[in-house]
Amino acid sequence: MVYLVSESDFRNRDVVGTRDFTRDQLEFIFDKTVEVKTNPNTFKDKLKGKEVTLIFFEPSTRTYNSFLTAANMLGCTTVGFQDPSFSSYGGKGESLYDTIKMFSSYSDCIIMRHPAMGSAKFAAEISNKPIINGGSGSQEHPTQTMLDMFTIREKFGKIDGLTVGMIGDLKYSRTTSSLSYALTNYNVKIIFIAPDFLQVRPEVEAYVKQKNVNFMKTRELSSAINELDVLYVTRIQKERFSDPDEHKKTKGFYQVNSDSIKGCKDSLVILHPLPRVDELSTSIDTTKHALYFQQAENGKYLRVALLSLMLGG
Amino acid sequence: MVYLVSESDFRNRDVVGTRDFTRDQLEFIFDKTVEVKTNPNTFKDKLKGKEVTLIFFEPSTRTYNSFLTAANMLGCTTVGFQDPSFSSYGGKGESLYDTIKMFSSYSDCIIMRHPAMGSAKFAAEISNKPIINGGSGSQEHPTQTMLDMFTIREKFGKIDGLTVGMIGDLKYSRTTSSLSYALTNYNVKIIFIAPDFLQVRPEVEAYVKQKNVNFMKTRELSSAINELDVLYVTRIQKERFSDPDEHKKTKGFYQVNSDSIKGCKDSLVILHPLPRVDELSTSIDTTKHALYFQQAENGKYLRVALLSLMLGG
Amino acid sequence: MVYLVSESDFRNRDVVGTRDFTRDQLEFIFDKTVEVKTNPNTFKDKLKGKEVTLIFFEPSTRTYNSFLTAANMLGCTTVGFQDPSFSSYGGKGESLYDTIKMFSSYSDCIIMRHPAMGSAKFAAEISNKPIINGGSGSQEHPTQTMLDMFTIREKFGKIDGLTVGMIGDLKYSRTTSSLSYALTNYNVKIIFIAPDFLQVRPEVEAYVKQKNVNFMKTRELSSAINELDVLYVTRIQKERFSDPDEHKKTKGFYQVNSDSIKGCKDSLVILHPLPRVDELSTSIDTTKHALYFQQAENGKYLRVALLSLMLGG
């Protein structure tokens, strides 16, 4: 296969949002991820002597620890914090600007999660080292999307031709925003499943439309379940609601369980970026449709691949 | 010495509670610990390429850091959290089930501390990687017991024939529960020293009785001090009391100090799993009886030995 | 150049305060730092097999992470905590004494930050491993001073002959206390710039006077700006004020910005230990006077040099 991209395209590159990546670049990352998953030992200590900063201004388990695992496997050392409250940022009112300036002088790459939209782009402008966006407010979570799409490709052998439903809090979820952007590189159909007040944000919808991707919006899973190849479930992003009353309205609004997927394709795959709370029943876990634990595990391989491409060999 | 056990008995084995270990298995671990303490360099980087997860849902200094030190010495990398509040578990309501599922897909072993009884067993059932119980509620703390008994054996050359007193909060202390179980493998006498409302839990007493171990219960240290070879002191487990008034009753109830050990054997050894608050006077620190700092240091060697046995060479 | 000092003078030495270091010893450390900055690769893995404890009882970004980066670069492993609340100290009331006793049995060096004056000295008395003071209350922060002076020497080629102004919260700032002590080894003039209630502490002033160092105190930057070679700015140490009303008085009291440095020497250098809040305008960042980001970066090299000297090769 001939690529229009090469490893050098990724060297010291920022990973801020999924719109910055072409289809060929995404496929290049997925192929590298296959390499990692097949021959993990060839990546061991590949980045020895490099240092990676992890600064997380919001709680995380998977993103933080899979990046840490990836860095460990590549032989990188790490600095930073998993909890900002005991940093100067949280404890003494230091600016994000100064925080980024400092870490970019200490290490070779900064992986950051921050509640503000635009925070990753802001960091990339300040830093002279590459930034990886580990989640910026409700806006983007590009490495999550990469591992989501890698998991879909791994399962179906391709992404073209699939119908992908996204259900849940599409308004505040950065995972579905990033995924929607990235899917426009493929010949897919997207179905956004949410009540009106949690539906896909206008700018995401506009982007999908502009890219001529086939999509529709619906309130009910039942009206779409029979045609889905992939059902992507997201948690209500409690932390994004400024109005607690609005959040209360969402309580028990939807749950994906054995009942709600009745009539689905035999090959339906259910994904979830995790953590889940009530929106995805554990009764799904043991069905053949559940792919979210494998998806979470793929995060490790994808992030090894990405760091390896960005920081060289 | 011929063992009924071999290293292979420990490979990928869960360490949930002390009742799961035979006398021969315990001795095997102690002998391995002697090796670590004598020739630490032969263990350096022995587990290079392995990754260990540390997830602590309760505060810890010694257990967390001695496991971390042990992992570091063996050349393992580590992931996890020392404070759950910035994980998805603490920050977003993720279940323990999903947390364990994820870490077992990232790393080779999970070391967990959790306030719930049964949590370690629960984790072991979920995980396809071995679980080490770093403390489960007031129930079990098996690696603490192993290092306690190693320290006793190191001091006296044997455990058989000794009289071991345990004083303090025997009701809520997981260290004395685990120690009581494990001592039933030896020919010892156990004296439980506590006021009625803090005495040894019925199921622990029943187990000791069923194993035909010589034991007695008393309210006063003074009535037992002259026959003790080992005095094991525990902290009041403030965090285990659901009723603050009941906790207040324990205030200043007992303290082991120079006065209270009057009449003790010249060879008496005082142990404490630490941290201590008021129950063990610092005036004891400089006496020949104090062995708790050496005990804490042994935690490092014991945990190197155990990880080495579990995760192979 | 012939030194009165050699590497052996630093082996396993405590770094508690700047008054313990002679001019020759400081210069020796600065020269070693030049080596690190020029040939970082020769220091890689130089301390492999050593373990460093980092225990921080107050928030930190730079000190914590530059020590961590330095340890990583030298190939040391690390243990400890960045947030005491989930340790036994914070969570169970363990004493600092017991905490230090334990970590000194686990690792080769303890780097500690603690809000109490005298805490580092106290730790050094307990520990049988060297202590590095990463900040003790409002008293001392010796490694900060070392990197400050290294940065000055790097810029001017020397420290003798310079006029150094310190502005801000000189009463509660440990960085300016430590810097004042250390500067008495040089032929400098010190100008303390602060309102009366934030002026240099009596014991610091007395020490400077006793060492026959030329100094003056003033309330206004404007009266001193034209003669300064170095302007050292410090943050109001909000966390040191026991009376919130007294802290409020300091609000907006001073700010170093383009206006306030009018009339300065062309070669004026502005330093700040960071974090800054309002006292140093970001409008300074892009001027040739700003050296604080370079200063922060130097922290990494200085700490590699220091650890390397202390823990051997």
How is the secondary structure organized here?
Three copies of one chain form a homotrimer.
Chain A: H1 23-38, E1 51-56, H2 62-73, E2 77-81, H3 88-92, H4 96-106, E3 109-114, H5 119-126, E4 131-136, H6 142-156, E5 163-167, H7 174-183, E6 189-193, H8 202-210, E7 214-218, E8 230-233, H9 244-249, E9 269-271, H10 292-311
Parallel strand pairs in A: 1-2, 1-3, 3-4, 5-6, 5-8, 6-7, 8-9
Characterise this structure:
The structure is a homotrimer of 313-residue chains. Chain A is α/β, with parallel strands linked by helices and 313 residues long. The first copy, chain A, has 2 domains: 7-140 and 297-311, 3-Layer(aba) Sandwich (Rossmann fold); 142-296, Rossmann fold (3-Layer(aba) Sandwich). The first copy, chain A, has 10 helices and 9 strands. The longest helix of chain A has 20 residues, at 292-311. Chain A starts with 22 loop residues before the first helix and ends with a helix. Chains in contact: A-B, A-C, B-C. Chain A binds chain B through residues 44, 56, 58-62, 65-66, 68-69, 72-73, 82-83, 235, 238-239, 274-277, 282, 293, 296-297, 300, and chain B through 49, 51, 53, 77-81, 83, 85-94, 97-99, 101-103, 105-107.
CATH class placement of the largest domain in chain A: Alpha Beta
Total domains of chain A, how many?
Answer: 2
Distance between the termini of chain A: 22 Å
Note poorly predicted spans of chain A: none
Strands across the major sheet of chain A, in which order?
7-6-5-8-9
Portion of residues in beta strands of chain A equals: 5-15%
Q: What's the helical proportion of residues of chain A?
A: 25-40%
Assembly context of the chains: homotrimer
Order of helices and strands of chain A: HEHEHHEHEHEHEHEEHEH
- Total helical segments of chain A: 10
Class based on secondary structure composition and strand pairing of chain A: alpha/beta
Mean pLDDT of chain A: 94
Radius of gyration of chain A: 19 Å
Most extensive chain interface and residues per partner: A-B, 27 and 28 residues
- Count the strands of chain A? 9
